[in-house]
Amino acid sequence: MGQVDTGHSTIVAKATVCERYIMSIDPEAIRQVATNTAVLRPTKQALATFGSTVVTYYLLTEPIYSELTGETRETVVRRGSVTADRPKIITPYYLLHLFHGFEHGHEYANYLIKTHGANSPGLMYSYRNELFETSIVGDPLQTVAGKISDQIEEQKETLSAIIKGVDHLWDVSLMKFIYELTVASVTHNVEDLGRMGLLGLERGLPRGIRLRIEEMFAAVTRGDLAPLELKNELDRLGVFDEYEDRFLGLFRRHS
Known about the structure:
Blueprint: E1 12-14, H1 27-35, E2 38-41, E3 53-61, H2 66-69, E4 75-84, E5 88-89, H3 105-116, E6 123-137, H4 141-154, E7 160-164, H5 170-195, E8 201-202, E9 205-206, H6 207-222, H7 227-237, H8 240-254
Parallel strand pairs: 1-6, 3-7
Antiparallel strand pairs: 2-7, 3-4, 4-6, 5-6, 8-9
Helix pairs in contact: 6-7
């Protein structure tokens, strides 16, 4: 992989969620949820290139029982945050690590693979989701969205978003929001990395990956990183053989 194609980048993500569902869903259900999810108020900032980004979300849905009772004046409000770690330059080896931790992550990952291609290289964005609270408000969804939007504006929250989702598969709605935010951030992230020379090849790997490996070796030497984490990263990159003698040397120095 010589460079990141900003016109057709695959966004790889992994994340955790707080709620779990036991139902099994098919790809068509995922597609319908994605189609019916809308960002009513996006964030005013993109994801950071060289640090973590914490996004507050308000995910609004009509309660699932409204499908049985008809029109409802109630809205389910889920408030939480998604922490996007510093994006990592990856090789195709990483493309199998998609949305781990989401109850419906496997289905959504397959949806993305079919849409964008299984082997399109890019950056990996890692996410951690924390759901703070779920409440039911006695107002229609658009009214609730307007009130929350006014609150966000008043408090000048540049990293807050309002999402209209689907109640019984709200985590899929959240993933769609995360994915679209990531896509919107890719161009400037790639430009930042390019200006730093981190996308150029160095002995067959992007220079940014070589630097990350050096940082991990240094962290193991300091005792800040477990050797197994370094070993796993080298395996995921497919370069353990190249670094094997150096890796084993870490143990010889401590024997």
